[in-house]
Amino acid sequence: MILQQAFSRERAVELALLTGPLLLLGIGWRSLAAAGFELPGSMVRIVTQAALCVIAMHAAVRFGAPRARPELLPLVAVLALLGIVMVARLAPGSAGQQANWLAVGFAAFAGGIAAGRMPQRLRSLTYTSGLLAVLVLVATGIFGETINGARLWLRVAGQSVQTTEFIKAFLVLFLAGYLADAGGALSRPLPRVRAATVPGAVYVLPLALVLAGAVLALALLRDLGSIALLLLLAIALVYVATGRAVFAFIGAGLVIATGMVGYAAFGHVQARVDAWLDPGADPAGAGYQSLQATYAVNAGGILGEGLGRGVPDVVPAASTDYVYVAVAEELGMAGAAGVALVYLALLHAGLRVAAEARDSYTRLLAAAVALLIGIQAAVIIAGNLRLIPTTGITLPFVSYGGSSLVVNLGLVGLLLGLSHTSRAGAAPQPG
């Protein structure tokens, strides 16, 4: 009874925390209107729909994962509702569609909660998930369409679906399941493995084959950003599973080697790196986006120009690849730092779910989801601030894009389901 009251209080805390994101949505809407910005004609419907989606997510957690940690959903809601405001600001014609994708994301979120309550079934899909990741990549290569030099989209029912987002989800399931089985062997130095046991190299082989297949396919599709994200995730998760720094060093070498090969093999990668190193060399061409992004960040200063009062839309792809620059210009570095801190808090909350797990598979799966979102956010923020070359991947929950929003909401639902399962005292699984 006492435990039930405690968990009930946590849902009440979650609901109270959600007032912040909902106020952010309303203030953002009215700020744009006060600035004289021409909002979409359906803005009332967009704001109402987005708010109802967040409330519905709270209801899904309350009934589907009542014992889950209370801070996860409010953190995600801050980012998703900020995304609605920024899409309405940067691409008004797409704001309604973003709100519709948020509604689809609610279904993925609820499905993720249900899946998180059945970790043993997810674990049985480990190798199926790895195979599906490679098959989806192959299908994209055969039937996909090329946009901005990369072949990453499939046309489904009239909508362009970025398949790499779904591939990331499949690889999260594969990596968690595989490392839960093989982590113990990989954590031992190879010379010390007894003759009676299977050599550690054998455990590396399935991981290497799936990663090599995914990396090769992504290279053929010219998606170097997803390759970097995939390798960084694999490195981080292998380190979490084994504690061996040697794997981290090997992985870092692979990332550097992949970047060098990509630079030599693909013209659009070379153009991005050259524009990063010296955007002034071609200010009206390849360096234009990078220069405009730098000007936008500088114009924002500490407190920003104010929503609707800057000109971040002069930056190409401002609503997708460069949405963080738009935040920095109109909300200032204070607002941009706040967004980065939300991602750090979300990463911390996800890793706390992993720490509370009662078995290695649940622990690694929760860590994989948290690390995937955290690494992706870090890569895109660093690219927007010209700390690294741009990668073409989206800022989770904030950038315009249905595939990214739906998949990431599904993964957060999975994380909440895992949190409930661990905190409810479910019987531990083998491993």
Automatic annotation (TrEMBL):
PANTHER family from the UniProt entry:
CELL CYCLE PROTEIN, PEPTIDOGLYCAN GLYCOSYLTRANSFERASE RODA
Q: Which Pfam families match?
A: FTSW_RODA_SPOVE
Membrane topology, from the record: Multi-pass membrane protein
- Major localization listed first in the record, in broad terms: membrane
Looking at the keywords, is Transferase present? no
Provide the species name. Tepidiforma bonchosmolovskayae
Q: What is this protein called?
A: FtsW/RodA/SpoVE family cell cycle protein
Transmembrane parts of this sequence: 43-65, 72-92, 98-118, 130-154, 166-186, 198-218, 224-241, 246-266, 331-351, 363-385, 397-418
State if Transferase is listed as a keyword: no
> Where does the UniProt annotation locate this protein?
Membrane
Among InterPro entries, the record links this protein to: FtsW/RodA
Keywords associated with the record: Cell shape, Membrane, Transmembrane, Transmembrane helix
